[in-house]
């Protein structure tokens, strides 16, 4: 079985890799979220172990990003120093399968991994469609329809639109959207977000007269809301 380990602390990562390899797991180690996102579409993993705090982005954002990129996800465990209830709730609600609070013993980590693999064996996540009023997204076919008519979107427009709709009401910064949708933390390229959002307003009718408000919040980002 193959595990993706996302951990920027090299000394700690070496310990985890040793534990996992001695348990007969194959391990791919990544130090940044961007490195992992570049590899993820080309590899098949049985399990992912993510650190929370990374040099370029947060582990929960990496998890959200791969959910946009794949129909089926491997189970995900967060290995983190955070133990506050709101932090745990955040990663579980975002789609994590389990978490382990640092520091953790080898027996505890291996027990959590084995239990999770048993629970999720041959039952990987497979959400294929979403509906938001007149908008319908077929994730498997990468097709969007508005009131039954197909709307032509680029891959990034598809991902961006679906992320906004799944996070209705949330204020999303340009940098956050670059991390999640484009898999990059470059501040220089955030203009891409503005261009794509302009296209989505037009193509998907995300305007008040059609029941939606996609609002630009000065120096903060964007928020999509229903125009009741």
Structure notes:
By secondary structure, this protein is α/β, with parallel strands linked by helices. It folds into two domains: 2-125, Response regulator (Rossmann fold, 3-Layer(aba) Sandwich); 129-226, Arc Repressor Mutant, subunit A, CATH 1.10.10.10. It has helices at 10-22, 33-39, 59-69, 85-94, 106-120, 155-166, 174-182, 191-203; strands spanning 2-6, 26-30, 47-51, 72-73, 76-80, 98-101, 125-126, 129-132, 135-138, 143-146, 149-151, 171-172, 212-217, 221-226. The strands form four sheets. Strands 2-1-3-5-6 form a five-stranded parallel beta sheet, sandwiched between helices. Strands 8-9-10-11 form a four-stranded antiparallel beta sheet, with helices on one face.
Return the domain count. Answer: 2
Mean pLDDT: 86
Number of strands: 14
User: How can the largest sheet be summarized?
Assistant: 5 strands, parallel
Encode the helix/strand succession as letters. EHEHEHEEHEHEEEEEHEHHEE
Relative strand content: 25-35%
Output the CATH class name of the largest domain. Alpha Beta
Write out the strand line-up for the largest beta sheet, numbering strands in chain order: 2-1-3-5-6
Specify the number of helices.
8
CATH fold group of the largest domain: Rossmann fold
Q: Termini, distance in Å?
A: 49 Å
CATH superfamily of the largest domain: Response regulator
Summarize the structure.
This protein is α/β, with parallel strands linked by helices. The chain contains eight helices and 14 strands. Helix 2 runs parallel beside helix 3 (59-69), helix 3 (59-69) crosses helix 7 and helix 6 (155-166) crosses helix 8.
């Amino acid at each position: 079985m193959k595990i993706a380990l996302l951990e920027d602390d090299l000394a700690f990562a070496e310990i985890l890799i040793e534990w996992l390899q001695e348990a007969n797991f194959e391990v791919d180690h990544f130090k940044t979220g961007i490195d992992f996102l570049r590899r993820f579409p080309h590899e098949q993993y049985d399990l992912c172990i993510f650190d929370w705090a990374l040099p370029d982005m947060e582990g929960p954002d990496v998890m959200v990003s791969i959910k946009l990129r794949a129909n089926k996800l491997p189970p995900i465990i967060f290995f983190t120093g955070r133990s506050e209830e709101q932090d745990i709730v955040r990663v579980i609600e975002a789609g994590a399968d389990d978490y382990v609070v640092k520091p953790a013993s080898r027996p505890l980590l291996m027990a959590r991994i084995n239990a999770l693999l048993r629970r999720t064996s041959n039952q990987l996540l497979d959400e294929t469609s979403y509906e938001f009023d007149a908008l319908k997204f077929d994730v498997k076919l990468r097709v969007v329809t508005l009131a039954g008519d197909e709307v032509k979107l680029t891959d990034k427009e598809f991902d961006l639109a679906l992320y906004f709709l799944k996070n209705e009401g949330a204020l999303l910064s340009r940098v956050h959207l670059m991390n999640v949708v484009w898999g990059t933390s470059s501040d220089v390229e955030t203009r891409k977000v503005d261009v794509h959002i302009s296209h989505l307003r037009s193509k998907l009718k995300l305007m008040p007269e059609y029941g939606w408000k996609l609002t630009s919040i000065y120096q903060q980002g964007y928020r999509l809301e229903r125009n009741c």
